[in-house]
Amino acid sequence: MSDLVTRVADAVGIDAALAEKAIGMMLGFLQREAADGPVAKMIEAIPGASDLVAKYNGEGSGGGGGLLGGLLSAVGAGGGVMALGQQLMSQGLGMGEITGLAKETIAVAREHAGSDVVDEVVASVPGLSQFV
User: Fold this and answer.
1) What is the Cα–Cα distance from 14 to 6, expressed in whole angstroms?
2) Which pLDDT tens digit goes with each residue over 81-99?
3) Higher pLDDT, 72 or 114
4) CA 95, CA 49: separation in Å to the nearest integer?
5) Helix-, strand-, coil-residue percentages of the chain, each rounded to 5
6) Secondary structure in 3-state letters for 11-62
7) CA nearest neighbour of 94 among 18, 3, 37, 30
8) Can you tell me the distance from the alpha carbon of 3 to that of 132, in angstroms, rounded to the nearest whole number?
9) pLDDT band at 1 (very low <50, low <70, confident <90, very high)
10) Contact 57, 92 (CB under 8 A)
11) Alpha-carbon distance 100 to 63, whole Å?
């Protein structure tokens, strides 16, 4: 279990297996949605992050994000952050836990990749800044 998973699980108060899956889903989302250069630097800088992305990227995304994802896609929003939130909720996480997960993961990312890189990643994903 990586330091990232342990730290996030402890900070959010969730079990390590769920934290691992949720972090992998979130980083996989960022890999798909954020600016390529900065997100690649960020994921490579965090020990164990690449493995989590490889293991959980796309997990829970079957069906295109469910009803909400479908509606957002229909109006051209593509699901984005809201679809990720719905996928994480389907894993049993509440909104407070998802926000804690995002904030703690981004804090770890800043320590390893630096604020400039992480700020570029966050700025490149519409709506993400309100959660981190």
Assistant:
1) 10
2) 888 888 899 999 998 999 9
3) 114
4) 23
5) 75, 0, 25
6) HHCCCHHHHHHHHHHHHHHHHHHCCHHHHHHHHHHCCCHHHHHHHHCCCCCC
7) 18
8) 20
9) low
10) no
11) 26
Between CA 98 and CA 77 the distance in angstroms is 21
Backbone angles phi, psi at 92, to 5 degrees: 100, 10
Q: Which of 118, 73, 113, 97 is nearest to 23 (CA)?
A: 97
DSSP state of 128: G
| Residues 91, 117: Cα–Cα separation, whole Å | 29
pTM: 0.82
Q: Quick one: average pLDDT of 69-76?
A: 44
Query: For residues 55 and 24, is the Cβ–Cβ distance under 8 A?
Result: yes
Q: Which of 1, 18, 3, 40 is nearest to 101 (CA)?
A: 18
